[in-house]
UniProtKB/TrEMBL annotation:
Keyword Coiled coil found: yes
Domain of life the protein comes from: Eukaryota
Protein name (record): BLOC-1-related complex subunit 6 C-terminal helix domain-containing protein
Coiled coil: 16-93
Domain BLOC-1-related complex subunit 6 C-terminal helix residues, every copy: 14-108
Lineage: Eukaryota, Fungi, Fungi incertae sedis, Zoopagomycota, Kickxellomycotina
Keyword Coiled coil applies: yes
InterPro entries reported for this sequence: BORCS6_C
The organism of origin for this protein: Coemansia umbellata
Length: 114
């Protein structure tokens, strides 16, 4: 391409300079947007890590509560079995008392008849 005059040559240089300035401006804007995007992504990662920490802490607390509940239920079952065992002895004593009472009633009835 042949330049016809110095004025055309200078005009083309100005156009190229303007294009270079625009390209640099676009490059700065792209860098700014990229930096902002990176900051937002880092913030999101921090939030997600904190969220995971909360979830893990909640799970551990729930696990401890469940373990405590299971242990209490096991203790309650053991206590019920112990009470059941002790009640068996009381039932036996209760039956003996009833038998003695019946014998006393029979003896009293026999005494009245004689």
């Amino acid at each position: 391409m042949e330049v016809k005059s110095v004025e055309e040559y200078m005009e083309r240089i100005r156009v190229l300079d303007a294009l270079e300035q625009q390209a640099m401006g676009l490059s700065r804007m792209l860098t700014t947007y990229t930096d902002r995007l990176q900051e937002r992504l880092e913030q999101r990662v921090e939030i997600e890590v904190a969220s995971e920490d909360v979830v893990l802490s909640s799970i551990k607390s729930l696990e401890a509560a469940i373990d405590g509940s299971v242990e209490q239920k096991q203790q309650l079952i053991e206590k019920c079995q112990q009470l059941n065992s002790e009640m068996q002895g009381l039932q036996s004593i209760s039956q003996r008392v009833q038998e003695i009472k019946q014998l006393l009633d029979v003896m009293e009835y026999a005494k009245r008849k004689s």
